[in-house]
Write a structure and sequence with these properties.
- The chain is mainly α.
- Helix content is 70%, strand content 0%.
- It has two domains: 6-67, Orthogonal Bundle (434 Repressor (Amino-terminal Domain)), CATH 1.10.260; 76-114.
- It has helices at residues 6-16, 21-28, 32-39, 47-57, 61-67, 76-89, 93-114.
- The longest helix is centred in the last third of the chain and has 22 residues, at 93-114.
């Protein structure tokens, strides 16, 4: 399971999405100073801020809340699923469709192998 902390993780997400702190603040409604405090480990992200950040990043709220420590940790298997969902979230729609087809094909192959 990852040991990465929330500010480090959020900074990576912002880089992946080519989004600045100012843009995150604008999209989320969280003040620029609060975003800076979260990313610089001056103050923790509150539940409401996490929800607003998740919505701004178009990510599932549970992912942000879990990464910020507001929800219980998950199993390693669930962590892999959440990472895939996070990765899928940054893809364009056509790439998401392609990835979904690939996962479906793998699942069918595994099911065929089992029978």
């Amino acid at each position: 399971m990852e040991t990465e902390d929330f500010p480090e993780w959020l900074n990576k997400i912002l880089k992946t999405k080519s989004m600045s702190q100012a843009e995150l603040a604008r999209r989320s409604g969280v003040s620029p100073s609060q975003i800076s405090k979260i990313l610089n480990r001056i103050s923790p992200a509150g539940i409401i801020s996490c929800i607003e950040i998740a919505d701004a990043l178009k990510m599932r709220r549970e992912i942000i809340l879990r990464k910020a420590g507001w929800l219980e940790p998950i199993t390693e298997s669930d962590d892999i699923i959440e990472q895939v969902l996070t990765d899928m979230g940054v893809l364009h729609i056509q790439a998401k469709r392609t990835a979904a087809r690939m996962v479906h094909a793998i699942r069918e192959e595994v099911e065929e192998y089992r029978t």
